Amino acid sequence: MDELKISILGTGDMGGAIATAIGRRTRHALKVRGAQPGSASALKLMDELGVMEASKQDFLASDIVFVVVPAAAIERAAPTLSGYQGIVVAVSVSDSVGRDGLPSSAERIATALPEASVVSAFTSIWSNVIREPGKSGKTSVFVSSDDDKAKEVVSRLATELGFEPVNGGPLSTALYAEVMGMFAVRLATDSGYGRTISFHAFNAG
Length: 205
Ligand SMILES: NC(=O)c1ccc[n+]([C@@H]2O[C@H](COP(=O)([O-])OP(=O)(O)OC[C@H]3O[C@@H](n4cnc5c(N)ncnc54)[C@H](OP(=O)(O)O)[C@@H]3O)[C@@H](O)[C@H]2O)c1
Known about the structure:
Number of domains: 1
CATH superfamily: NAD(P)-binding Rossmann-like Domain
Distance between the termini: 32 Å
Keywords: Oxidoreductase
Domain Pyrroline-5-carboxylate reductase catalytic N-terminal: 5-88
Oligomer: single chain
Radius of gyration: 16 Å
Bound molecules: NADP nicotinamide-adenine-dinucleotide phosphate
Protein name: Pyrroline-5-carboxylate reductase catalytic N-terminal domain-containing protein
Organism: Paraburkholderia saeva
Helix content: 25-40%
GO molecular function: oxidoreductase activity
């Protein structure tokens, strides 16, 4: 895969896992940023991975920007990317997705960033599995977007990271993959399967 410029907005548990996976398992050029410039979570990652903080210009020049902020912070975070015309990977999942009457986080990001090509992906995978995909089979990454070219780029990146991309259809279906993310949380915590419980889609026919 050609070298891409990838930036991560949101450097907590999941943003840190994605940055670590990309920084350690690919040769793409990576930059990161937390809620504010110089945020402690971003500085820690920059130190661990030897990468720089993303400026507004870096975001605008990125091929892919991962948005990995709490769902409640999407509209607050979006102005950092205003005018961006590249690929946004929407990873955020609302705690009450499917029950809150809101559109998916991916669709909210698409509304906030109308010039970007928004792709929903990685919403149903635990950060632990992003860091260490494991050896029990490939975890599926459900990839939804209205932009087929952007979907293909993100699917190739998912493959490069050790996952199996599954065509999740248009962005309007992102909600269902986000619900699977919250189901993974419930399975891990309430049902006791732990933070490596994963989904693998296969054709039983
Ligand atoms: N954790 C998982 O395994 C997992 C899996 C799938 C999906 N997700 C989704 O990924 C999202 C992040 O989850 P998380 O577990 O990583 O949460 P987290 O550990 O609380 O991290 C949230 C990050 O978002 C940043 N942030 C908050 N407001 C921001 C803003 N206005 N602009 C830019 N950055 C902002 C925070 O920055 P500071 O550090 O500077 O405060 C922090 O780095 C959530 O929507 C979650 O549902 C998580």
